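Batch job 17 of 40 flagged for manual review because the log was empty.
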Amino acid sequence: MNQKYIFGIAAALMVAVFATATLVHDSEKKAHRAQVAEQNTPALVRDHSPTLGEAEARVHIVEFLDPACETCRDFFPYVKQLMAAAPGRIRVTVRYAPFHDGSEQVVKLLAAAKLQGKFWETLEALFTAQPNWASHHDPQPELVWNFINGVGLDIARLKTDMADPAIDAAVKQDLADARTLNVTQTPEFFVNGRPMPSFGYEQLKQLVEEELEASY
């Protein structure tokens, strides 16, 4: 057996060992994330969390998001499409995860808008205008006021509510829950308590479809 042939076999074996180790690592990582979510169910939803959809819906998507996150913006219409495709059977809850520097004030604005029953309208307005106030992951929270005028918010009340210690506590609670659930980036989704096996539109869709099939 010549050296070139031996080298080829050795290289193929190394690739196989590496691929197997990667698969095992990914599998263990998925299992660990699922176990953490299962053991910390109360950390998924809090009383202050904004929710959209029928309360009786049996499929519940929990999304940790940051309004300054471009990928969160990309997923927003997609989540609405999933809900529209299964009327009354899916509800969505948002958790605050202001991981970008400067976005915590924007999250507090959203929490204050919720007190006026305008959370979802405000979130949509912020996502629509995101390129103008958070281009390339660089939030400039002082600019967001230019893009929420059409929502119908009482701005004076909004600013007062943003300073309420209860809102600060809600944001801190969400960040603590994110740490508990090993949420390190946004958006992060849980469907009926199950984390996505890996990140992507198709993975979220498949998880939702599995829970719809199991629940109805």
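Reviewer: the log was empty due to a logging misconfiguration, but the result itself is present. The longest helix spans residues 3-39. Unflagging and moving on to job 18.
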